[in-house]
Design brief:
Chain lengths: 528, 336
């Protein structure tokens, strides 16, 4: 009985240590004398880099928290026209890769884009170019908020639907208004759920490369790239990555602290909440709010991509495209599955032992999610070249290198989900099964896994939509003749052919949306 | 538990099975390329059909591929490296990554500045200045120096200094005219910026047309590509572009090389010869809007329209040694 527990301990430690081993090269740089360019980097790049990254992370974090949580609250307590399908559609913006949205919006507002041509050609109005100019920082924030708010929306919605029923009715009998319920009950109770969502948002923002690179924002990831590629100083790039990981580690600690402080509330029994039907002007206003958000964040970019697909389909090399599509599908499914399995092992290890070792392991496993993909790519590449020369086998020309890279990069996302799932189910059912004489492993397989299934599925979905759009690792670690939809988007977009990138972009969005829908549909169907 | 480990091993092994090793077949060539264009893929397919040699391709960013080649030095995987940007030659030579090429089939028809012992340029692109033909410039612009002229206050547009094109432009200037002059130039241009550098090369043309500035730095390649765009509005922009070839116009080169100790040297050499033939050069010129390096190959109509010009004579093998200084200058003068 005890042995099976240790199996988790050993496998959890193995993966954690393996990751540490791969990214260790970055930390080693902190203890070597700095290179010549380091002084230049500290003087000219570091201040900007910290400032831009903080502005992006804090603004995006706060805005996604406000938007995601408020919308989740509205669909939980109110009933209004379109609520049932709009609450599902609100997940879908997560399927739009931020870098694709950046190209799309910039092009739409450029001189040749639909907005300016409409004013110029249709209305015959010549407005100054500055009128349509989108400043980089606000545009980046808009892109991140509109594609990432669903993280907060999902975590809050799951929580509110389970929890709020117990409180709202009591509060209503005490003559509290919905505004007071929002402020005094829903918001403080949901803090851990909101923080969990915001954590994912912030990690995505600081790990992003495509958006900040295109808009020329001097964030951490662009500066790491600049030190490496432009200054030719890979040592300093690793040093910066280590600094960045330090910040992320600190951030994870702070979030953990807040989560502990806000405590956990376990529901006695989730009760269905009777939603207040909004009628008249209130109903119209609420529906309009949701329609506006969906139009801005989802309908407009998708329509634009559809329009470009129409304009460019004659230029697409279809055999290449079909190849890329099949490769993308097979590899995304397999790799996401593998990531979920490893995340499950590490989370189970943490759940069983719950000591300093497991909590450090968990945090290490999240680190890969927070540093730019291109740095993870280089660390993995060097590791594999080293291993290959030891083994005298060219492991670094095989697919295994890309698989390991993606596992390290996205393991954190899987762990976040599964750890959340474990917190939700608690240990009581498991303990009951064990008192009935089942071994740990048996209780785990027959009791915990079925209860954990929703978390495993949503973890799979979230990892999948990240893997399917992934670029830096795929570009650097792929074997010969390996093309995905994302590399096709990259090929066209880096050649400034945004229109030709539309079809692969749209298919990425469609596949991700399908997956999100498949996983959320059963969850929402229960909710009548 | 065992099942999970078994499953994972199975997945890893299946995926490891996709390995392509160079020893399996004798008639293959492994290419690392940062020229991720459809026409390049077409050319590789044409090479396969003509010679029966299988081409294995990894595409990526030039610097990252080069770093990878360097790390793989002990046991090279790539046979041929193709990239955009002459500044990378320096790094490749310093790290002894390349081996001597046989230039005999084309040497007579290629200018000496476009080939070295262990590399050869495939195409060229000119970094020029552009304006809106509907809003002609007030004075006669002759050189890059004019961008720093006070008359252009708040009217110059350029993409960011992260762009390898801009880095190579300034590195070439340092090579030709020295650090002090190059820094003064960058300072002057930065003072004249109409806005903080943003967007890509095509965007600069669009900024000019929408009146955000009067003159922009842009690559001829993207002018040709705009003219071939699927978007009619972009074609219209290309038609309105007025091009100024400055004195000593900076030429950005794409180049190819063979990797030292590579395993398929014969096939590699064949591929490079193939890319230097008339047909391939003509594809680069007409379909991709680049300047061919082989004498006698016709230009695309849009580039032919802008006529002859005076290009800079620089040593591409040394260009890379000025890159770090160029980046530092950009940071010092605040050219983002």
């Amino acid at each position: 009985m005890k042995q099976s527990k240790w199996l988790f301990g050993i496998s959890g430690s193995f993966f954690g240590l393996f990751i540490l081993f791969v990214i260790f090269e970055a930390f080693l740089r902190l203890f070597t004398p700095p290179s010549q360019s380091w002084a230049h980097i500290v003087e000219f790049m570091l201040p900007n880099m910290i400032e831009s990254t903080l502005i992006l992370a804090i603004t995006t974090g706060m805005l996604t928290a406000i938007i995601g949580f408020t919308l989740a609250y509205f669909v939980t307590v109110f009933d209004f026209w379109g609520r049932k399908w709009m609450q599902l559609l609100l997940f879908i913006p997560l399927a739009i890769p931020p870098y694709i949205l950046t190209y799309t919006l910039s092009s739409m507002f450029s001189y040749t884009g639909i907005v300016q041509t409409f004013f110029r050609n249709t209305l015959q109005l010549s407005l100054p170019g500055t009128f349509f100019h989108l400043p980089p920082m606000p545009l980046a924030i808009y892109v991140f908020v509109s594609t990432l708010f669903p993280y907060v929306y999902i975590t809050s919605l799951g929580f509110l639907k389970r929890m709020l029923g117990n409180y709202v009715e009591t509060a209503l009998t005490m003559q509290k208004s919905y505004g007071q319920i929002f402020k005094d009950i829903a918001l403080p109770l949901s803090m851990p759920a909101i923080l969990a969502g915001v954590l994912l948002v912030v990690l995505e923002v600081i790990g992003d490369f495509g958006v900040v690179m295109y808009l020329n924002i001097p964030a951490f990831s662009t500066s790491i790239f600049r030190s490496w590629v432009s200054l030719g100083d890979f040592d300093s790039a690793l040093r910066l990555s280590a600094v960045m990981m330090g910040f992320v580690f600190l951030f994870l600690m702070i979030v953990g602290f807040f989560k502990k402080k806000t405590g956990r509330i376990l529901p006695s029994k989730p009760r269905n909440l009777k939603r207040k039907k909004l009628t008249g002007l209130q109903g119209v206003a609420m529906s309009t709010l949701f329609i506006t958000i969906l139009t801005l964040f989802l309908v407009i970019p998708v329509l634009q991509l559809l329009f470009w697909s129409w304009a460019s389909y004659a230029n697409i090399r279809w055999t290449m495209f079909i190849n890329a599509l099949v490769t993308t599908l097979i590899s995304s499914v397999l790799i996401s599955g593998l990531i979920v399995v490893i995340a499950l092992l590490i989370s189970t290890d943490h759940r069983i032992f719950s000591n300093l070792r497991t909590s450090i392991l968990t945090k290490i496993s999240i680190l890969g999610y927070s540093i730019p993909g291109s740095v993870v790519a280089m660390l993995v590449l060097f590791f594999f070249i080293q291993i290959s020369s030891w083994l005298k086998f060219p492991l670094h020309t095989s697919m295994s290198m890309l698989v390991v890279g993606l596992v390290i990069r996205y393991l954190g996302l899987g762990i976040q989900n599964i750890a959340g799932g474990y917190r939700k189910i608690g240990t009581r059912y498991h303990e009951a099964a064990q008192t009935l004489g089942k071994s740990y492993l048996k209780a785990w397989v027959t009791v915990d896994i079925p209860l954990l299934l929703p978390a495993l599925l949503s973890g799979f979905a979230l990892v999948f939509i990240d893997v399917i759009k992934e670029l830096p690792l795929t570009l650097n670690l792929r074997p010969f003749n390996y093309h995905t939809l994302a590399t096709q988007v990259y090929q066209y977009a880096s050649d400034e052919q945004v229109i030709e990138a539309a079809i692969p972009s749209l298919v990425i969005i469609l596949l991700s949306a399908l997956l999100i829908w498949l996983i959320t549909y059963p969850m929402m169907k229960e909710d009548v | 538990m065992k099942k999970f480990i078994g499953l994972m091993m199975a997945i890893l092994l299946t995926l490891a099975g996709c390995t392509t090793t160079s020893s399996e077949a004798n008639q293959i060539v492994n290419v690392y390329s940062s020229r991720n264009y459809d026409v390049d893929k077409d050319l590789l397919v044409a090479f396969e059909q003509q010679t029966g040699i299988k081409v294995n391709l990894i595409e990526g960013k030039g610097d990252e591929l080069l770093e990878r080649i360097n790390r793989e030095k002990a046991n090279p995987i790539a046979d041929v490296f193709i990239t955009v940007g002459g500044e990378h030659i320096y790094y490749a030579q310093q790290n002894q990554l390349l081996m001597d090429l046989d230039h005999s089939p084309y040497q007579a028809n290629v200018s000496d500045r476009l080939l070295g012992r262990d590399w050869v340029a495939l195409t060229q692109r000119a970094r020029v200045m552009i304006y809106d033909v509907d809003a002609p410039l007030d004075f006669d612009v002759k050189s890059y120096d004019d961008l720093a002229n006070e008359a252009f206050a708040s009217s110059v547009l350029s993409r960011s200094s992260t762009s390898s094109y801009n880095i190579a432009l300034l590195a070439a200037m340092i090579q030709r005219e020295g650090l002090v002059k190059a820094e003064a130039w960058a300072q002057g241009v930065t003072k004249n910026f109409a806005q903080t550098p943003t967007g890509n090369d095509r965007d600069q043309a669009k900024f000019v047309m929408s009146g955000l500035g009067k003159v922009a730095i842009m690559n001829t390649y993207y002018i040709a590509r705009l003219a071939q765009s699927s978007d009619q509005e972009e074609v219209k922009v290309a038609e309105r572009i007025g091009v100024i070839y400055p004195e000593n116009t900076h030429m950005n080169i794409s180049w190819a090389a063979m990797i030292k100790d590579s395993k398929n040297q014969q096939a590699a050499q064949k591929l490079i010869h193939f890319l230097m033939e008339n047909e391939a050069q003509s594809v680069y010129a007409t379909k991709n809007g680049e300047f061919p390096v082989l004498a006698g190959v016709e230009l695309s109509p849009i580039l032919a329209k802008y006529g002859e010009f005076d290009f800079e004579e620089i040593d591409y093998e040394q260009l890379g040694s000025y890159v770090i200084e160029a980046v530092k200058i950009f940071d010092r003068v605040g050219w983002n």
